């Protein structure tokens, strides 16, 4: 037993923890500045709420480290069922904000269940792929994997929440690829996805279509649907090499940039800390990615490797899409920047993912 504990501590990944905590701290500082109104010396309550969620995230991360991921995987289908129930519940009783039913009130706190679906889908896919092994080459098992990710994706699209639905689709693709799906099957699924875009377009809401059209033609409606991205580009560009300094960003402090504390938090950060600050932020994400790849490669079993791959896919996809979105190189889809954007459910989910990664790494040293 003592040897087991020693091996656990031997595998502790301090680099992953340090990168995560630095990102969370930078996120808190940026949420504070995006909540600060220049001239009025007033701060909106976003910072205090995000601080509470960060502390809860630390607790969730610790729990995820201490509980063996194989124990959680044993209950993967039950967890998956609970989150599906929450998604169905949302369709009938969810709180509608800006035309979307994504949130429920739980003990006075607003919670977004679709964020937790990322975790349950991650676990259920890892469990299923581990159970079937090489039978992933058989079409019937591939169809089951598609359904496991497709059902929550469909329910999330009904809310509607295009960004989270895309995360689940990419998560499925990444895990299937890592599990060794046949190239011909992968190519067929990719081709089917591309062919289905015109059908998918018909089911998009009006504002979602407008965002995609604004991406293709930014001058389509500069004072309407394109306004947010244009202001974001101005904020990022005006940061220059070293930025304007904390609480000194004109685009953010004078509220030219809408929803700056959520999906466009990177624009606030880049305006205040400039190109060098943005490079530092990206280096922290790259450090996290490098460590996560090592964890996936050295995991003691297939389940751990699949979980690590899934977490890499979730974090990398969200970071890439969010950063490209803020500079106008990707359509606005409502995907938050991990560890930085305001939002308790997302922060709690991301920090739990890091706890799972740390747990996989620590248990890779137990034989």
Query: Gap between N and C termini, in Å?
Result: 12 Å
Number of strands: 5
- The portion of residues forming beta strands comes to under 5%
- What is the 3D form? globular
Spans of at least 5 consecutive residues whose pLDDT stays below 50 are none
Number of domains: 1
Helix tally equals 16
Mean pLDDT: 89
Largest beta sheet, briefly? 3 strands, antiparallel
| Arrangement of strands in the largest sheet | 3-4-5
Radius of gyration: 21 Å
Proportion of residues in helical segments: over 70%
The arrangement of helices and strands along the chain is HHEEHHHEEEHHHHHHHHHHH
Helix/strand-derived class? mainly alpha
Short overview:
With 367 residues, the protein is mainly α. The protein has helices at residues 2-10, 14-35, 46-66, 69-74, 76-93, 113-132, 139-157, 162-179, 183-195, 197-202, 206-216, 227-238, 250-253, 265-298, 302-326, 344-363, and strands spanning 36-37, 42-43, 95-97, 100-106, 109-111.
Architecture overview:
- The chain has 367 residues and is mainly alpha-helical.
- The chain has one domain (37-364).
- Helices cover 70% and strands 5% of the residues.
- It has 16 helices and 5 strands.
- Strands 3-4-5 form a 3-stranded antiparallel β-sheet, with helices on one face.
- A hairpin with a 2-residue loop joins β4 and β5.
- α5 runs parallel beside α7 (139-157), α6 (113-132) packs antiparallel against α15 and α7 runs antiparallel to α8.
- The termini are close together.
């Amino acid at each position: 037993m003592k040897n087991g504990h020693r091996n656990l501590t031997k595998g502790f990944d301090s680099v992953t923890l340090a990168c995560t905590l630095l990102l969370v701290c930078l996120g808190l500082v940026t949420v504070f500045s995006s909540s600060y109104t220049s001239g009025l010396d007033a701060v909106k309550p976003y910072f205090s709420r995000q601080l509470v969620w960060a502390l809860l995230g630390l607790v969730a991360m610790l729990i995820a480290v201490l509980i063996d991921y194989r124990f959680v995987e044993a209950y993967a289908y039950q967890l998956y069922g609970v989150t599906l129930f929450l998604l169905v519940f949302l369709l009938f009783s969810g709180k509608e904000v800006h035309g979307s039913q994504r949130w429920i009130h739980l003990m006075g706190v607003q919670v977004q269940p679709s964020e937790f679906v990322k975790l349950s889908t991650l676990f259920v896919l890892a469990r299923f792929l581990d159970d079937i092994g090489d039978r992933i080459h058989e079409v019937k098992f591939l169809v089951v994997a598609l359904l496991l990710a497709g059902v929550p994706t469909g329910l999330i699209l009904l809310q509607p929440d295009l960004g989270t639905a895309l995360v689940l689709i990419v998560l499925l693709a990444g895990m299937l690829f890592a599990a060794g799906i046949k190239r011909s099957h992968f190519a067929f699924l990719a081709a089917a996805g591309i062919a289905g875009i015109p059908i998918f377009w018909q089911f998009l809401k009006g504002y979602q279509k407008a965002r995609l059209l604004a991406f293709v033609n930014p001058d389509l409606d500069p004072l309407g649907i394109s306004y947010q991205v244009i202001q974001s580009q101005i904020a990022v560009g005006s940061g220059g090499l070293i930025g304007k300094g904390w609480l000194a960003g004109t685009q953010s402090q004078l509220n030219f940039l809408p929803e700056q504390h959520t999906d466009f938090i990177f624009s606030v950060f880049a305006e205040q800390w400039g190109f060098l600050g943005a490079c530092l932020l990206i280096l922290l994400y790259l450090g996290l990615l490098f460590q996560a790849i090592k964890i996936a490669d050295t995991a003691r079993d297939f389940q751990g490797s699949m979980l690590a791959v899934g977490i890499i896919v979730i974090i990398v996809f969200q970071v890439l899409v969010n950063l490209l979105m803020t500079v106008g190189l990707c359509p606005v889809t409502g995907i938050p920047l991990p560890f930085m954007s305001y939002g308790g459910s997302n922060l709690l989910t991301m920090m739990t993912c890091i706890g799972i990664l740390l747990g996989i790494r620590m248990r890779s040293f137990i034989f």
